[in-house]
Amino acid sequence: MPASALAFEAVTKQFGTLTAVDDLSFAVPEGSVFGFLGGNGAGKTTSLRMALDILTPTAGRIDVLGQPPSRENAAAIGFLPEERGLYKKMSVLDTIVYFGRLKRMEAGAAKASAMALLERLGLADRAKAPIEKLSKGMAQKVQVATALVNSPGLLMLDEPFSGLDPVNQAMLEDLIADAAKGGATVIFSTHVMQHAERLCDRLLLLARGTKRFEGTLDEARGALPFRLVLAARGDPAGLPGVMKATRTGGDGDWGEYAVEMADGAAPEGLLAHCTANGVALNRFDVHRPSLHEAFIHFVGSDPATPAGEAAR
Q: Is the same domain home to 207 and 71?
């Protein structure tokens, strides 16, 4: 079992009478891509800020890279905040180098890393441009570069895809995947399930500050039954592993059926039986639950939060 790059143990954070994070425990294995998933007010940003020592927990324990949260960890961490903010008059290159220097990089190394990132992000020709002259999407990419400039061992990204068009979202996904391949632990928060489906090794589903699920994508999907649709000559209800077959269409002897399988039965076994025994089929479709469906299962269809809580 790999060591944990980040671990929460019974962590609670209260703001007056509001409990933003409630008895939260989880662990992020080193070298993994870990997704914080939840709607506004779920506790994602508050949790990341506690891990960064920006906020102090009301109760519980946090370990970051094997020690309590501390500014001393800064050189090993890259952070992209949800609320973006750069010095508007500073040039693109100087901005990224500045953040590298804050992470204790030598000036030459910071500049080389910054230029390599600008090439990768398609902004090399804007290196000398002031931040205020950039589009919102370009500024967002510069902010991403400030989080990556020090090649951090722990990369924490709060809603990193916000404000990016689909092309640049794909570019950022590639950067995250490359960071993980290079040995970094990546933690990112999002409410967009597709990014998590493509990137994450493990997931944490949050609602109203509480953990609803922690595990792999397959484990999240496995909490819901798959759906099987087949077209067969004759009623498939008597086939091995079929618990219920509901006819939804068809013509004459050929029927289309929505099939519910018994616990433990696999569609592959049913298909093998049909093939081996000459059962006539002309359609056999298996629909496995999406992460969005799993999210609704664990969190509910209305993870909305009271006014004033969404900022957390």
A: yes
